[in-house]
Structure formats: C-alpha cells, structure tokens
C-alpha cells in the first residue's frame, strides 16, 4: 500500500509534549530518553523550531493542547501513554484543528505506539520518524469524548473505574490485576454477573444482549495480543466484541483472559463490524472506559469521526 510522506524540515512550529508521570518504570530513565529525543529533534529542525513542554496534570494537558491550537503548531510529538495522547487529541477535535502528530512511548500502556511500530529506543525512534511516513489514524467518539484504541463497558471498565491515578502511577499494570481480584470477590463470589447490556449496530433496530462489550478501534487490546483480526488504527471501522456468557465461570474466564492479555484465544466472543454503536445497560450511569481511562457512562453512543489524524511514524 502506498504511503504518503512529509518533509520534516518544512515545519516552522513543532512541540514536544512530555508527561513525566506516564508509566514510570523501574530501571528505565524515561527523562533521559526523552531528552535524547529532544536533542535529536533540535539538531534536525533547529532550536528555534522546537518547543518542549512538560505536563503534570490533566488540566495542564488541556491548557497545552489549547495553546497548540491557538498558536498553530504544525507537528506535535507526545512523549506519554495512550491517556495523554487521547486527552490532547480530544482538544484538537474540539477546536477543529488536526496537526500532524507522533508519539514516543513512555506510558503504562502504549497501544498506539505499538501498532505504529514506534520503538522506545530514542535512536531507533528517530530513525523511523525521520522518514516522514504518514499513517492515518481514525478516531472514535463515545458520548462526545474521543478515543483512539478502544471503548469498553462491562467487566473491564468496572476494573478500570476502581483503579486510582496513584495506583496506576506506582503499580502500573499490576494495579489492574489487584483490582480484578477485588472485583471477583465483590461481584462474583456469591452471585452471577448482575449487569446486562444491549447493543445496536448501525441503527439497525436490533438490540443484542451481552454481559460485557468492547468496541475495538485498534489491533491491540491491553497487551501484545491482537484482539480482533482486521482491526486497525488506520481503518475506518469499529469492531464490536460481545461477551454473551453471564454466569460466574464465563465472567471469570473473560476477566482472566483480559488480565493476562489473552483474549484473542477465546473463540466464544461474537465480533461485528460497525460504523456506529448504541449501548444501554440495566444500571444507569454504568462506568465505561476509553483508552484505559474511565471517562463516560451508559447509555453510550459511539461512532467514527469523519477525518483521521495524520501520524508521522
């Protein structure tokens, strides 16, 4: 497939946005790696072209993203995880501005960088990005909130909703294992799964029953395993995964597969392609997750945005 490319040296305003709180890891000097990226970008583009900003809170993310829109930056490199990338992109969408973007993976989960095959090694990352090859990334929207990789409601979103920012910061993926164990005790020890979802695809008038739902926009979910064959950031499609099992053993199996990044091995999940999805729940305001953060609640109205973001990768 032919890919377009852009000449990086044509840019006059470029910003590197670094979230030092993203995905802190033992024995990995993230700040040093991002500093290496910054120095190589300065050498390539010129010191006057590159602006570097560090962010430490969600409020700062929105402020910096708004500045990017107001000051007409042409290329934005996000050194952070999927959550940081999602929050910045959402402000761009709100402002009707879609600059070229890149991501350097430093987060707890880096599904976008993984699918775009962007490595964590600074030299290898620069070597790949310097080619200027473009990949269109189609965005999903759930109740007017943007997502790049996945929207989920059910057993996974209930786990994510209970994990605090402090736990994510210091425990990384282990926080989800801990909360998953607590969910089993709380929701499944003495009873079957009590939540029910109904899903309509492409406004076809048919409500399909499910015990849990994942709407995939990316090839990957949670880890290295491919959740849906054919799903891709660069494809203008949603893939709706319906989990039908409602008894305790079914939900324990699904939860175990999610927590061990092995969901692709389960063939009992029904998967449907869609352009739009409506989801309702037997409990009002049930927490849903977008790109690994609890951001919206049921009922959900999910669709694709009409224009992709061009990633330099």
TrEMBL record:
It comes from Candidatus Avacidaminococcus intestinavium. Gene3D superfamilies: 2.60.200.40, Probable inorganic polyphosphate/atp-NAD kinase, domain 1 (3.40.50.10330). Keywords: Kinase, Transferase. The keyword Nucleotidyltransferase does not apply. Residues 9-146 form the DAGKc domain. SUPFAM superfamilies: NAD kinase/diacylglycerol kinase-like. One of its GO terms (molecular function) is kinase activity. InterPro entries: ATP-NAD_kinase_N, Diacylglycerol_kinase_cat_dom, NAD/diacylglycerol_kinase_sf, YegS/DAGK_C. This is Diacylglycerol kinase.
């Amino acid at each position: 497939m032919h890919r377009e490319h852009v000449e990086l040296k044509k840019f006059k305003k470029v910003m590197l946005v670094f979230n030092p709180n993203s995905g802190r890891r033992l024995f990995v000097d993230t700040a040093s790696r991002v500093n290496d990226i910054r120095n190589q970008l300065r050498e390539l583009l010129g010191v006057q072209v590159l602006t570097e900003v560090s962010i430490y809170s969600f409020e700062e993310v929105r402020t910096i993203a708004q500045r990017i829109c107001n000051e007409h930056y042409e290329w934005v490199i996000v050194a952070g995880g999927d959550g940081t990338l999602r929050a910045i992109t959402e402000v761009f969408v709100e402002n009707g501005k879609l600059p070229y973007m890149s991501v350097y993976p430093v987060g707890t989960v880096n599904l976008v960088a993984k699918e775009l095959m962007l490595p964590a090694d600074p030299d290898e990352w620069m070597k790949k990005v310097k080619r200027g090859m473009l990949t269109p990334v189609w965005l999903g929207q759930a109740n007017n909130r943007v997502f790049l990789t996945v929207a989920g409601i059910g057993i996974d979103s209930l786990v994510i909703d209970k994990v605090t920012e402090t736990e994510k910061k210091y425990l990384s993926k282990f926080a989800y294992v801990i909360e998953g164990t607590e969910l089993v005790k709380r929701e499944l020890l003495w009873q079957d799964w009590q939540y029910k979802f109904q899903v309509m695809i492409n406004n076809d008038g048919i409500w399909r029953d499910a015990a849990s739902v994942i709407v995939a926009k990316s090839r990957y979910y949670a880890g290295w395993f491919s959740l849906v064959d054919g799903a891709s950031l660069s494809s203008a499609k949603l893939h709706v995964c319906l989990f039908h099992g409602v008894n305790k053993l079914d939900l324990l199996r699904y939860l175990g597969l999610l927590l061990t990044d092995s969901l692709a091995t389960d063939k009992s999940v029904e998967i449907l392609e869609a352009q739009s999805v409506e989801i309702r729940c037997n409990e009002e305001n049930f927490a849903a997750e977008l790109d690994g953060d609890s951001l919206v609640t049921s009922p959900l109205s999910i669709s694709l945005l009409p224009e992709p973001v061009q990633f330099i990768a």
